[in-house]
Fold these 3 entries.
Entry 1:
Amino acid sequence: MLKALTTGDIHTFEILLQEFLVNSISMYDLPSNEPEKSYHLFVVGLLILLADQYHVKSNRESGLGRYDIMLIPQDLSTLGIVIEFKKVSSQETLELAAERALNQIKQKQHAQELKSLGIKAIKLIGIAFQGKQIYLQAEDSN
């Protein structure tokens, strides 16, 4: 799963993350008042396994606001990653929430920290969730 993420194979990452969530967590692990924090902490915990290759940052400022998660590669020639989470609102689909997350990354210029370090390959990922269902939308930063 983590290899798929760090090589930019976001489709495989999404499939494996979804499978992991369905098989590993309970709906009771996701508090109804702040489920975004649960997903955030869960994914940060998984990403810590990349500490030998990446600096894993959470809730830091970059650009015009604060991103959810950033993976800063120790080898600046490899892929940098910015992740934003969004809970599906009552008026939207998983796809629309993921698009909203991705748009926030772009509008708030969250990839700026990676760019300022000279990282050329940057993946922006919006992750939407509803209960244990997720949907990812990703694109390369320009």
Entry 2:
Amino acid sequence: MEVIVAENAGFCFGVERALEIVARARRSRTQPVHTLGALIHNPQETERLEAQGIHRVESLEEVPSGAVVLSAHGVDPKLEEEARARGLEVIDATCPFVRRAHARIRTLARQGYAVVILGDPGHREVIGLAARAGGAAEIVRNAAEAAALPFRTRYGLVVQTTQRSRSLIDVAGELAAKCRELRVFNTICEATVGRQESARGLAEQVDVMVVVGGRNSANTARLREICEATGTPTHHIETEGELEAAWFQGAERVGVTAGASTPQWIINQVVARLEQLARAGGR
């Protein structure tokens, strides 16, 4: 059994940047460093940060003093204002691609467009995006939900950075019939596009696909969907301990891809376990 890792898999620029920012903050400060929510969507990496003294909190009430790091996904600006009002040091690790989406939404709202966000409701990034529209944005998950929106004179569309390009095209098509003027900003990040294309291409060439990443990771979920759409049996796991030998019975080629928040050490462990199964003949 041959194990093939996708050309583009694992950490993206925004995640690497966020981890570097928080590591530097921890080294240079004697006071506690906290992350507001998960810095990135990978439970194992979050545990590793905790072991290094970088503590995750869910609310600012849990931070009596020190520094608070805003996650790579971005946050509602009101939270940043509240943190500063509490006398906390704010360290912003928001991904530059997410920042670009923030700017696009502010532009649309300022120019009077009815803002629509293609994304996952409740996701931290989408909450932060909607806040830039003054809370007036419509959030849709797919073309069917876009088709249900009322007619408006002008719609402006922005997309969560980890969505699929096909979904953006479909939603834009529906919105075009719902207004006189449609302005679309493709804010899907370049790394996401490359990772999705790489995963799709590999899935079409192998017998089984393994997608590695946090179950709370939106971009990892997209990878699973893309691989499943090729018809190749696909399994989403967080760690190598979830691999089951029965999945690979009779498989000659197994593909591996990983979400943008998945560290290389987890990918390496998964590949090592797959190679162990291959040497054992899949038993």
Entry 3:
Amino acid sequence: MRDGIVLAAVAMALAGMAGCAPARLHYELRPPVLAPPQQPATATPRQVRLRLADAPACRALASSYDGTAFGLSWTLEPRHLQIVTNPRLSGFTQSLPVELLRGIQQLHTLLDRAVGDGCLSPAAEHGALRRIAEGAPLAPDVAQVAVLGPYTVQAYIDVGDPVRLHLTYGLLPNQPGRYDLGYVAREYRLVVDTNDGRGHLELAQTAVFNARAPRVVPPAPVELASSVARFYRLFFFLRVSASNHGVALLGADTRAKLDEASHAVLLEPRRCLTLSWPGVSCALVEPPVGLDAGLRVWVQGRPVVAALPGTVRQALEAAGIYDASRMLSTLRVERPWRGRLIPVTAISPHVLLGLLLLGGERIRY
């Protein structure tokens, strides 16, 4: 009997080391909030603390934001950042208050600057944002905004884990708009090269869809892969002129240049076509070529990129499943929580289809 208990304890320990979660741990999706496990009966303010490196630039950083009325505030005093969320943050969904979005954007800007100045590692920044999203019951869209930033308001999103780029173009060069005759989908990822989070874009995979027969894959009309270490930012829509508009990929070798160039491009979209700053690049991608951002998740063990806003349904569509009704009874979603994957329970599989993702989820059916 004693041996059996010991073996069971060992098995549980090994499961924890492998990243498996005990069955009792689960997210509970009860619209409009997604509640992580182990929540107290009465929600209380939660804190995320970060200590910056000991350097002159880090000691000089100081900032604060009092959004207590919206559930988010922080204080950065020399080398110590304390982020506080309170239960009011759990009451927001969909149309978030402008002041809350501004606060989240300022927090991202502050953390990005700390990373750019060498005061904080990119992993620490990402980990802090995930802790905010995973630490309390939140609407899935609030959690996603906390991790990825308010991209729907600021009109851009930074490229890097878990955000990937998805380039699509027609398979037939003489009929680039005829996606029904076949199209190519290329996925690009950012490979981090430096301690401050800069990296180069690398082609992760290429797939052909809607082709009736095997064909030679034409080269991409826009070359995104690069060996240059930069920060990359995707702008969802730039109207350069009445007939010239599309998405733009901005790259810069410092965060300061990225922010300065972003401000210039947002004020005057035509600057993207003529930008000639040292260490800065801007590529405009126009229809019928498509370039969008998505979140990398797994469907039936296969990695896919779910286009933003990144729902479970969109992840299934990225895997080639356009009629999800046939697998609703067996649909299962696991979501990262404190470095492990735990299941999401929902009152209805239909509700589960609309769940906004954070990246890294496992979807099975």
